[in-house]
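INFO batch 0412 | record 1 of 1 | parsing
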Amino acid sequence: MMEERAKDPTLALLHNMKKLAVAALVLLLISCSPSEKDSSIDIALMQEPPTLDVQVNSSISGKMIAVGNIFEKLVNLDGNGDIACSLASSYSLSEDGRSLEFTLRDDVVFHDGSVLDAEDAAASLNRWLRVYPAARDAAGSGTFSADGSKVRIESDSSLLMLLMMMASSPQCAAIMPSETLSEDNDYSLSEYIGTGPYRISEWYPGDYIELERFGDYHERDASGPSVLRYIFVPDGTTRRLGLESGLYDAIDCVLSDDIPRLMENEGIKLIEGDESGSIALVLNKSEGIFSDLDNRRSLSLMIDRNELMAACYGDYGYSVDSSYMENGLWYVEPSLDPYGRKEEGIALPEGERIRILSSNTSNLDKIAIALSSELAKAGVESEVIVLDWASFIERRKDPSSWDIFISAYSRTALPQLKSYLSESNPGWLDDDQALALLEALNEARSVEDAVRQWKDAQLYLWEIVPAIVPGHYTTVYGVRSDLEGVELAEGFYFQSASLS
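INFO prediction complete | emitting C-alpha cells
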C-alpha cells in the first residue's frame, strides 16, 4: 500500500499535469465509446482528516473515507438502529449482560493478504479500549480474548453499552492486523490496513486521498466504482463551483446560501440527511465566570437560539432545539428544559468580559459573532477569538484562555459519547451527580432501561447547564444527477454508487 508522503511542490505540479493529460485522454475515449462507464468518483470534502486511524480520531471526514471503505467492525447498526453482524457471523450477550461473545467469519482477508483471525480482532478491540475512555468505562473490568474463531469479553458490569459502542461509536472499533498495532505506542499506526472493499493507493497530504477497490474483498458480489478519490477543498464556494462544472461528482457540506442556486440546476441533486449533529456552546466550568451555576443559567436564558443557528445556516438545515441528543431513541423533549427559552431581565455580573472561542470551520465563527451580539443586547461585553481548527483545538485545552467555546458535535448513538459530557474534555464537567447518572447508563441491562436513565440525566444536565445546545443541524450533500446508489449514514458513502 502507499504510505503517507510529504508533498513536494515540483512533484505535485507534475502530478497535476499528468492528471490533466489523463483526464483529456479519458474524455477522448468516452467520446469514442459512449457505452463505457467512468469507474472512478471524485468527492470534494470540506476537511482533511488529521489521520485515518479511526480508533483514535473521530473526525467526520476520517469516518467517511475510512470506515466502511478501508476498515470494518465486527458489528454495525442497520438502517433501523439495530445491531447487525459484519465481520462477525454471530454474537451473543449473556442474560446478565456481563459476558459478550462474537464468532468471526471465516472468509475475510486483510489488504496485505493475511487472514483475519480472533487474535487480530482481540488485539484491535483491546487497543480500542486503551485509546477510547468511553469504551474503557463501558467495558468495566473486562478485556477481549481470543479462543479459536471466537472473541470474548467478560466484565463485572453490563456490556450492553459496550456492544452498542462497538457498532456505532465516533471512535471506531475498527479491526486491523495485530502486527500493525503496538502497545508501546497506541497512538501510532504503522500502516492503514483493513478488510474493507477499498485500500489506499495514493495520499498527497493537503490535496487528496485515492482509494482503489480491493480485489479479494470478502463480499464477492460487491459492486461499485474502482476508484474513490477524496479531494480536500475547505472553501464551500469552490466546492460548489467544482460540482457545477463537473470537476467533482459529489461534495459535502453544501452552504445554505448555495442551496437555492443548486436546486435550480437540473444536473445536480441535493441529498439531505437526518439530523447530523448539534451545535454546542461549551462553558468553562473550571474557572472564570461560568464556574458559577447561576451565571450559566443566566446565559442560557439570555440568548436567542434561533439567532445563533440562523447566523450559521441561514434558511436551511437546522432546528432550534436544546436536547443534547438528536431525534431518535434518546431524544428528550426540549419543553422540559427550564433554561431553554429566552427571558428578559436576566443579567450577568457587571464588568465581566466574556471570551468566546471559535474555529473558522463551517461558519462556526458566525455563531460566535451572533452570540457576541446577543450579549451586547444585554449589556455584556465580549471578545470573539477565531482560530483555524488546529489552533482552536489546542487553545481550548487552556482553561485560562476562554469562557465559552463553540463547536459542532456529530450525532452519536449513545449519550455518553457526546465528548463535552466528559470530565476530561475541555469544559471539565465535574458535577458528581451528573457523572454518576452518565455512569449508570453503562450498567443498563436493556435499551429501555438505558433510555429511562438518560432522560433523568438529561433533565439534570439542563439544570446544571454544562453546555448550551441552541439547535441541531442537518448536513446537505450535492451530487451529480446521474450518480446513483449514494448511501447516507453519518456521512455519505459510495461503495455501491455508479455514474450513468
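INFO post-check: The chain has three domains: 39-48+196-273+476-499, 75-180, 277-473.
INFO record closed
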